[in-house]
């Protein structure tokens, strides 16, 4: 076993404990938004997809990398937008009639800009 | 500070933002800011990745992202709130697919002759779990979208066949570890997709949300596996976070349904139902069908009315009309609140989202336990498009597939009114004795339509 692997494994174990601890008490009304939010977070595979596409040497690797980036981008933007829409409705209402929904930039644009 | 260090620092900040975001998402107050924080962290991570030394194909990358955004944003924005669960399934599936593809690509690019066995194992794991998540999510989407029957699909020797496919996948994993063959990795990918599909087939529509949560966790694990392959701390942290919290969330959800996870996954819920047959039970017994006018009068002269919404309300887009009815009743001095079952709708918390959309104030929503305390003092329990969540069989019929699931005790109210499209059983496919109770009045028809008539009747009364 190499040191690299050991280091990653250490991070893995610690992250698993954090994952268990961090959501220990969730009211049931937030189960769906939480699932959707964590769904967006695993969209971080986009970073991996970018690395793979960015270091592609052959046509096949390029094609696969391209597919991976498209899929992962879908995961990221879809995940965050859906979660935000859900949570938008949980805002405390101070007798303010629904404001026109403002269009916000999808997160992935932060990278392309 | 070198560029690489700066990028790694950005990744660290992103990882922290994910942890804080998950923490925020567990509390109603900070949920929204938590989600935005995670999005910001993600944008930072993506931006930092662009700065990596020697990153090629940037033009192609940007095109791929534009394609993803062009499909993903409209899909996520335009989808109706009632269709949210299948959207989550879809976005989860593509994430799992991306993880599998990343692992495969990394494997193809590497010189497999000198690859250490544990590296191959990481790849194989990423492909297997990612593809199972993709296949399973795809089928969940199809089920929730009702492109196929939501009832469990069973076939002879199902467990045996599924077990054999699983064993075959395991065999191929071993073969890959020995031979490092690229072709076999593709076979594994195909087999894992099949495995995902047959894993979901026997699971009934009502249980699919729990399943999506589990598949969400799987995708997290697949992402972590890709992180091992790519030597990326960020992917390992984020993937593991989602994997671990997802397992916990899945357990919470199944607990809310009063069932264990293995029971949901392997019991083929509906096979019992098709055997017992809901029609024969329905035969011979009569129900009392009322008119909106009668019920409107009953409601208007009640002291306390409990509205119990279910998926039928969501399908009919009747959440706004339900609020109108509640407002009309409150104007007449009737005490009204909504009793929300944890799994009402199609996902835990789904009903809260829908009612919040209709501007129903928080204070009028009561969770199941709280609502049940007041149920015996309620004059009317108005069940709108719900069925399984008020089925007393869950309390008193040990043979029933839903036995043990906590329910809203609508049967304790003085009067029960069901707004239903037909006598058809609910999502779980189980007959409901409460429909035949002498205290029960049925109002057949579309929930929205019936509610409108009720509003008119209440205003007249």
Largest sheet of chain B: 6 strands, parallel
Tell me the overall shape of chain B: elongated
| Strands of chain B, count | 6
Poorly predicted tracts of residues of chain B: 269-283
Secondary-structure element sequence of chain B?
A: HHHHHHHHHHHHHEHHEHEHEHEEH
Helix percentage range of chain A: 55-70%
- Could you tell me how far the N terminus lies from the C terminus of chain A, measured between alpha carbons in angstroms? 41 Å
Overall structural class of chain A, as computed from helix and strand content, comes to: mainly alpha
Could you explain how this protein is built, in words?
The complex is a heterodimer of chains A (113) and B (461). By secondary structure, chain A is mainly alpha-helical. Chain A has a domain of 53 residues. Helices cover 66% and strands 0% of the residues of chain A. In chain A, helix 2 packs antiparallel against helix 4 and helix 3 packs antiparallel against helix 4. Chain B has 461 residues and is α/β, with parallel strands linked by helices. Chain B folds into three domains: 74 residues; 191 residues, no CATH class; 177 residues, 3-Layer(aba) Sandwich (Rossmann fold). Chain B contains 19 helices and six strands. A six-stranded parallel sheet of chain B has the order 3-2-1-4-5-6. In chain B, helix 4 packs parallel to helix 8. The longest helix of chain B is centred in the first third of the chain and has 28 residues. Classes of the chains: A mainly alpha (113), B alpha/beta (461). Chains A and B meet through helix 1, helix 2, helix 3, helix 4 and helix 5 of A and helix 1, helix 2, helix 3, helix 4 and helix 8 of B.
Secondary structure elements and pairings:
The complex is a heterodimer of chains A (113) and B (461).
Chain A: H1 3-22, H2 31-41, H3 45-54, H4 59-88, H5 109-112
Helix pairs in contact in A: 2-4, 3-4
Chain B: H1 3-25, H2 31-50, H3 58-78, H4 84-109, H5 117-144, H6 158-179, H7 182-200, H8 208-230, H9 233-256, H10 261-266, H11 269-276, H12 278-282, H13 292-300, E1 304-309, H14 311-315, H15 319-331, E2 335-340, H16 350-357, E3 365-367, H17 368-375, E4 380-384, H18 393-396, E5 415-420, E6 440-444, H19 447-460
